[in-house]
Amino acid sequence: MRSRVPFRGTWFAVAALAMAYAIVSGLSPVATISMSCGKIGELSPFYGRSGFTCTDSILDAVGLVPVALLGILLAAPPVIAGVALNRNVSLCAAVALGFMAIFGLLNWTGFWVLMLMGALPAAVFAAIVAALQPHFRRPVASVSDRVNFAD
What we know:
Elements: H1 5-27, H2 35-39, H3 58-62, H4 64-84, H5 87-106, H6 113-132
């Protein structure tokens, strides 16, 4: 029987990498996600507060909430898969990350393109881990669960 520890550790490592990706993305310049910075060299008013330039960080331009939401959304499926440690839940986590990548692709001109760049590699890796993960059986909680009371 295979050990659960490597698979659980792998899922939690993916979640930690997702959070690290969100933090690093929040500290990167806003020019990496803004089309207006590339075209006209100015930050568009879409990014909220005025007075920011293309060299300011994404965290300063859009605020803490979207960056934190990015990290939570990217880390939630691997955490759920690591806690449940069930093959079906792991496959659902991979599918959820795939849908997040599609969402990021559909919003490629703004902040949420970061979701594409974070979710796509995570979805591919999650699909590989889910395919390799065996069916773990849950241990029986107590003796009374095994007793047949119909006698």
